[in-house]
Amino acid sequence: MSKIAIMGAMPEEIEPLLKKVENVKKIEYANNSYYEATYKGKELVIAYSKIGKVFSSLTASTLIEKFGCETLLFSGVAGAINPELKIGDLIIADKLCQHDLDITIFGHDFGYVPEGAKFVETDKALREVAKEVAKKSDLSLIEGTIATGDQFVASNERKEFISTNFQADALEMEGASVAVVCDALNVPFFILRAISDTANDDAGVDFDEFMVGSAIISANFILDMVEQIN
Ligand code: ADE
After folding, report:
1. Measuring CA to CA, how many Å separate 72 from each of 107, 134, 163?
2. Nearest to residue 175, comparing CAs of 158, 197, 200, 150?
3. Smallest Cα–Cα separation from 171: which of 145, 190, 138, 191?
4. pLDDT at 29 over 80
């Protein structure tokens, strides 16, 4: 049976998962902890990467190359750009981009480097599973573009930049790097985020207040999806 990776960036994003799974075995590797576990008969490997694109690339690569995961699900929180997204709402990425990648001086678009792509698409079948799960819940879920960068965004000016250049609906700090890894290694992947703030001047305060609750919403949704993945 195929192994499913579930990753987050911060402890709070995977703790709700670890409370619900069974047969947990902790493995230390590459300065990180990985948790093999089972849930409703499915084999899982769970880890948080630490924040940002570099750590999340390392963890995604390890989950695939060392632990043999054949599907990767990301669960966590994000700042909203699209005004329809309220705190606690869910967004599933149809595609992701790196908003802080900038070699525009050489005539390229923001987010583009040669032999890369400005946007990386997520797995359509996994998105369909999410939509089915959402139908049976009272949660609000939209599908859209997620922009990733090594910055906690807390300014309307930066939000505006990301919106103008990427038409992104939400932003966070790991999704696009995980996407690049999974795409290169041909592993179907899915990025889910629950909104913790709106990336404006109040984002730091909102994040501290809502991050834990939103992380739980995302983690519970991911486990409902695991049941439906073959
Ligand atoms: N994750 C959650 N909120 C965020 C924000 N405002 N900026 C970057 N990553 C986030």
Report:
1. 34, 19, 27
2. 150
3. 145
4. yes
All domains in the chain, ordered by first residue: 3-228 (3.40.50.1580)
- Give the start-end residues of each E strand in the chain: 4-8, 22-29, 32-39, 42-48, 71-80, 90-98, 120-121, 141-148, 170-172, 189-197
Based on the residue annotation, tell me whether 12 is a catalytic residue of this protein.
Answer: no
Q: Which is the catalytic residue, given 13, 89, 123, 183?
A: 13
The atom of ligand 1 lying closest to the CA of 153 is 7
Active site residue 197: yes
pLDDT tens track for 62-83: 999 999 999 999 999 999 999 9
pLDDT of residue 230: 81
